# Entry
Amino acid sequence: MKIKLIDSHAHLDKDSSSEYFFNIIKNSIDNNISSILAINTKISEFDKLYNLVKDYKSIWCSIGEHPCNINKNNIPSKKLILSKINDKVIGIGETGIDLYYTKNEINSQFEAFNNHIEASAETGLPLIIHLRNSEQELMNLLQNKNKQKKLNVVMHCFTGSYELLKKCLDNDFYISISGIITFKKSYELQDIVKKIPLNRLLLETDSPFLAPVPKRGKKNEPSYLIYTAEYLSSLLNIDFIELSSKTNDNFYNLFTKAIKYERIIYED
# Structure
């Protein structure tokens, strides 16, 4: 039985990835990656991303503006976000609050984040959340919005505290784990991840970033997801087949617009 895995968060349109796009997809198919969610981080570049993936069954995309791109002159409206949604778009984001790189733009970030949340609430498409140095600020807004209308949320590349994890689970959010879990100094994260229920867990590469051990330091790609999955299976003491099957089910339970295919297929 071939084990299929889903990369729930990859940046296929980054210059370092798009140049090698066809090889990346071939490697994904050869290594039993059955689906990829390609993440949009600049709405102005959405068409580039869409054109990369539009002819592939089982490769999907999101629409959103990364918080590090937000400033008073770049606050995407709900209307703009909604205008880009098509048959390939299954999620809203990557969005959120980043107070590490862009602390001075907090008001603009909150306005942009709120617009993404409203677009998600209106469409039912899940929010793909980026969080850095902003646990309290982001969660206060997200929890209040979730009380008003139930949101579908995945916390991308989770590296947060146990307190953050508890808040996320209390709100029925999904938690996505990247190759950071395999790093030698990720002891605290490894302990926290053990507390995530299996039915809330997703896998991602965040490629071309954060390549897992033993590929650390190299340009990451979806085919490397196997290393994160194998490590997580051992860490959680869960059979690898069970882990892959459950995380795949979680992906389709969250991203309900995605159609389930057995493999990535090109259709001209």
